[in-house]
Amino acid sequence: MLEFKVTITHENNWWNMGKMIECQIDSVRVSLTNQDRIIVLKDKTQERYVPIWIGLFEAESITIALQNIAVARPLTHDLMLALLDQLGAHLLRVEIKGLVNETYYANLVIETDKTFFVDCRPSDALALVVRTGAPIFVDEDILEEAGIQPEDAMLSDEVEPEEEPEETGDISVFEDFLDDLEKGNGQDDSLPPEPPVEPGPDTN
Fold first, then answer.
1. Which of 192, 200, 195, 178 is nearest to 33 (CA)?
2. Burial of residue 29 (number of CB atoms within 10 Å: 0-12, 13-18, 19+)
3. pLDDT exceeding 70 applies to what percent of the chain?
């Protein structure tokens, strides 16, 4: 039987986190190549984005809440919020706190008469965010390491000197870049790792 350890603390001491940058959910996307679900966070201070691969169930839960789709019975994340409400607690914020071996780690910051930091997957945390409007904060080191800027996807494009780049106001300028990212780059731990690929025989 598998056992999972859930960490609940009164202090937030994940590896002495650095500066936290507020972000927002930009979009939920589906890879055209393998149908993977990707949630894209946007830095609220500049044009910088972080793609996180998430599971199918979590993606559907987030999309249902974003589109205000009515469901007959509460989903798992609705149940979590109902439990918090009945216990007199509320979600204060979500922190994307670590990136280890291409897997993101997050905290639910829950407030009652005390403040609790609950370790969780980013996908579950973001499913609660879209239901509560709680703010999202990402460690600046993660944004520096995994963040994508529109110009990063345009470096390989040849642009005539007199042409001005079109400002779209969204991440469409590097949509293809997202599709080309490897699945393991910044995945949520709701997905199993890809098995290694054995090299073929040498034909030379």
1. 178
2. middle
3. 65
CATH number of the domain at 44, please. 3.10.690.10
pLDDT at position 52? 94
Q: Residues 8-27: what's their mean pLDDT?
A: 74
| Dist CA 160 CA 148 (whole Å) | 23
The structure tokens listed for 158 are: 């040849």
Of the candidates 52, 118, 41, 36, the one whose C-alpha atom is nearest the C-alpha of residue 84 is 118
The pLDDT score that the predictor gives to residue 181 is: 52
- Model confidence at 31, pLDDT cuts 50, 70, 90, reads confident
Give the pTM. 0.71
What is the average pLDDT score of the chain? 78
Whether residue 190 is contained in a domain is answered as no
> Is residue 106 in some structural domain?
yes
The number of distinct structural domains making up the chain is 1
Provide the domain limits for residue 13: 8-153+170-180
Q: Looking up tokens 């979600």, which residue turns up?
A: 91
